[in-house]
Fold this sequence. Notes:
This protein is mainly alpha-helical.
Amino acid sequence: MxxxxxxxxxxxxxxxxxxxxxxxxxxxxxxxxxxxxxATLTSMLLFGWLLLVGGLVGLLHAIESRGTSYFWLGxxxxxxxxxxxxxxxxxxxxxAEALTMFAALLFLTGGVFRLVGSVVxxxxxxxxxxxQGAFGxxxxxxxxxxxxxxxxxxxxxxxxxxxxxxxxxxxAIGIGGRRIVSMVSERLDETVPAADxxxxxxxxxxx
Length: 207
């Protein structure tokens, strides 16, 4: 009879850990928005280490699959990831500048395509697409005109916003999950005792 309660407590504890992790991510995101330069360098270092570790893991997999037709392709891809990770870790500022320029060009091209596409197609979402295109174009121009100084805060701002929204999502999942578990546990507590009640036989009632 205690199994549903035990499982409910475990689930509630798990959702509590999710909410705690989300709170930590929100705090990290807010700190990153305040110190965007530090957040930019941190995101570059994390990106470099992810490339390096991913390249090493890919190289190990390629070595394990030697003799197959994908061996050399795996070795080349792993070597490129390792080389890129080393470059990013050694030169995080230069990598941030290059990625910021790439992001600005993406914003520009995406904004132009949305503007042109909305005018040519003239669909039901034309106004919303025009707004998105204008925003992307303006954002790309702002980042590009302030480059390379914009590389000190653009990537860090995006990284911090990602942490912030991911943290808010985890908090919502954790709180909502705990509420659902508590509601289910209350229902089980109400129904289980009623099901466990024994019906008194007629013979016992006559006695």
